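Ticket #433: bound-state structure for 6-O-phosphoryl inosine monophosphate.
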Amino acid sequence: MALVVLVGAQWGDEGKGKITDFLAEQARIVVRFQGGNNAGHTVVVGQEEFRLHLLPSGILHPDKECLIGNGVVIDPAVLREEIEALAARNVTIGRLYISERAHLIMPYHRYLDKLQEERKGEAKIGTTCRGIGPCYADKISREGIRVVDLLDREHFAEKLRRNVDLKNEYIEKIFGAPGLDYESILAEFKSHAEFLRPYTADASMILSQAVYQGKNVLFEGAQGTLLDIDHGTYPFVTSSNPTASEAAAGSGIGPTALDLVLGVSKAYTTRVGEGPFPTELDGPAGEEIRSKGREFGTTTGRPRRCGWFDAVIGRYAARVNGLDYLAVTKLDVLSGLDTLKICNAYRWRGELLTEFPANVEVLAECEPVYEELPGWSEDITGARRLKDLPKAARRYLERITELVEVPVAMVGVGVRRSQTIVIQDVFADVFEE
Ligand code: GDP
Ligand code: IMO
Ligand code: MG
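RESOLUTION: The complex was predicted; output attached.
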């Protein structure tokens, strides 16, 4: 039995969905433990592309169980749409469990996300406007509505009334915007309750039974380390903890049960939304990576900002997640570039920084210190073993390992399941110990 945690080691969109789908073959249960439908995980199966937002990326394996943990924030309309869209494409989905303790994204959360972003103007975060921040804010201030509340007909109406009254006062008085209609939200959510009811479970209990029975579990992180509310580039972050320890708290098992942490990182770096990004490439090089890597947001369609691989970030992600291995994705996108750069430190006002700074103002002034490596011209999308890669590509991966001090277990060379080089089987690694 092995419990493997997969997390984003950069600013999200590292290719977690593809790696999760690949590893799901070896797992019995795939678990989402934080975030919401701000996530966009693209999985390609055969000729078909699936964009998952709330459902774990194991859902495309009909024989697997999927679980949405208490740490996730759920927009029921989105979940419903996602389940129905898969059914419309004739995808048979496996057993799905939704934690009764998960918080619900309500219409006023989406509305407030938009109003707050507009009010911030130049200082905006560049959120996905899916209501994520306002929903987690209500959770922490103990005003949130959970799945279990929605199923409790007697008390739901009263909780909703209290919330809508309070939010409307805030929306009207602070933002000068029209409030929302309580009755229509109530009617909408009554219908969501009936849809969600059959999936709802004590997810922590289901998971602990699975662990007791010796089943393999894969935890699928959303977002990435630098978007973490505690460890990321605050305030340009999301409102949850995408780092590995949340796999325990966000699903209701103890941290001692987790065996191994796999960090997913692109062979370069991307970011969507605002905030500093030291290795960002503004000119044609960034444009080339964006078009070759098809770097446009899965959720919002926004062009992703692109830049070189940053080993300062890699080391930081290794530390705060306790990474055992790295999965390096999209190596194929770098084919054809004469020279590749890796940032191994920052220069800030004449000082050399080797650790990732906490202050976002300092990060904004950091100049990357680069080392250069030779590129390769070969198409590597057909490589299936490490030895199929050109020498320069292998050297590039070795250099990442040396700088980040984490071994590479997997390499992505294309969007398909088969376009994955496995150097170390992470589930087997746990058994070998
Ligand atoms: P996630 O949010 O971490 O799951 O990543 P996204 O799905 O938002 O973005 C990653 C994109 O890269 C998706 O379109 C994937 O299909 C694609 N992708 C994943 N791995 C590879 C790879 O190794 N090579 C290439 N070319 N594309 C990849
Ligand atoms: P996946 O799981 C990349 C970014 C947004 C914004 C910030 C806050 O696909 O990797 P939010 O809506 O969460 O309040 O936005 O976080 N962001 C992501 N960027 N990938 C994601 O998810 C993201 N989820 C949120 O662009 O900068
Ligand atoms: Mg994504």
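RESOLUTION NOTES: The longest strand covers residues 339-348.
TICKET STATUS: resolved
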